[in-house]
């Protein structure tokens, strides 16, 4: 019989086979999708943190050229000097002019007040400090730490997605610090007073795990920076 006259058999899947295949695909997706999303989120956080650190360091460097070393800047000298006019005077003179794509959000604005409830460490400062929002949707605020005539640390809380959840420390909110000392260049880095001069990863990891303890905050952002702006598998909060 000529080949062209041969009846060709059509191959088709049964409904049961289709359903089984769909089920397998669904199971595989359910197993891998959370991992993919988690990996993407970690990358996004690290990219934002590194960008923020670089942006702030550049602003400080430019300000130092115009205003001299940070030790001579007019700075509130007490940790509880958190009134908005003091913080605003510092930022508006030494930081704000050297940042682009940023706006100041007054704490009296209802939206900013809501952000303040998650960013600020206590209720009093919620009502007094302003928030500074970048075009990419991230934001930060400043509250002062220990400052003297020759050295000081100024603490900053940065939220890489600002209004979006979870609004939790070391998940989307991270601590940074401006550190200056007479005779040295002013540095902006992840961390806090607790992480100053710590160059041991195990120590930073333990501080990160115990991040809610008094005077132990900042370990997680310092750890991420130590790891080359990367969130490794042993990071405890993501």
UniProtKB/TrEMBL annotation:
Transmembrane domains' residue ranges: 12-37
Keywords: Membrane, Methylation, Transmembrane, Transmembrane helix
This protein's GO CC annotations: type II protein secretion system complex
Pfam families given in the database record: DUF6613, N_methyl
Domain of life: Bacteria
Residue ranges of every copy of the DUF6613 domain listed in the record: 36-236
GO BP of this protein: protein secretion by the type II secretion system
Stored SUPFAM superfamilies: Pili subunits
Protein name: Type II secretion system protein
Organism listed in the record: Candidatus Scatousia excrementipullorum
